[in-house]
Amino acid sequence: MIQELREYSNNLFFKLLMGVIAITFVLSFGVGGFFGDRKEVVAKVNDQEILLKEYREAYENRMRTFQEQFGENAEKFAEQLNLRQQVFNQLIDRHLLLTDAAELNLLATDLELQDFIRRQAYFQKNGQFDYDTYETVLSQNRIVRHEYEGSLRTDLLLSKKQQLLGTGLVISSREVEQAYRMDFENIEVEYVFFDPQIFIDKTTVNQVDLRKYHQEHPDEFQTLNQFKIEFYTLSTDYYKDIVNVREREVRRYYKKNTESYVTPPQIKARHILLKLPPDSSEETLTENQQQ
After folding, report:
1. Does a structural domain hold residue 184?
2. Which residues of the chain register pLDDT less than 50?
3. Can you name the residues that pair with 44 across neighbouring β-strands?
4. N or C: which end of the chain has fewer CB within 10 A?
5. Tens digits of residue pLDDT in 108-142
6. Residue 17, domain member (yes or no)
7. Is 243 inside a domain boundary?
8. DSSP readout, 89-142?
9. Whether the predicted model's global pTM rises above the 0.85 cut
């Protein structure tokens, strides 16, 4: 079992990290020329399209984080780490996870989305969520509300999928021990190989010994019961146009086999229960029984 889990886990993360298994994507341009090409679709993951707008937003968000961390050296570090390729691979992983989540019928509900937004401090006023503050923050950052909420819903769905990946594999102590033994336990075996033909001419067996062995081990010489059956298949479709059945014969057969066409009587019963107090008198019980 643990081997199956290991194989499943390896296959899954190989899909997510390398984008090779179960993925058919067509690049509209090379990674190095993302900003030079004007095509909307930069890649396809299964039936999902990764748009140029989605890539640019993801790249700009990562660059913004780099600039906060590294300041004027952000561009240098981004180039050294091949940030463009990293962002592209992460988008592929993201869409693969979304595909798996859809196959598992995972959803991010409206209530979960609302709860997440209400818990964000920058949307609160005096410790409570404030709708006007919410609208103001989005407007100041030039963020369209429905796009923002759609992105949040996707993030919540991905979080559910990732939690499922982390908690879905439960490995028992016995499976760990079996895996350890499989990898590290060794067995030393000594054996001698010989050809039975060498001893045939040197061995003498008389009829008495053969008969005795046969009597002591009869099960070794028994076979299961075998049957030889011949059968023919007759199709009614073949004879229905050949055989002419007269109405008189049909009536005669019906009269002889009337019981085959009689439906047994059916009874529909109804049981009515009347609830009475525990201390009911016998007179009350009698009246209810008569009902």
Report:
1. no
2. 1-37
3. 49
4. C
5. 899 999 999 999 998 999 999 999 999 999 999 88
6. yes
7. no
8. HHHHHHHHHHHHHHHTT----HHHHHHHHHT-GGGEETTEE-HHHHHHHHHHTT
9. no
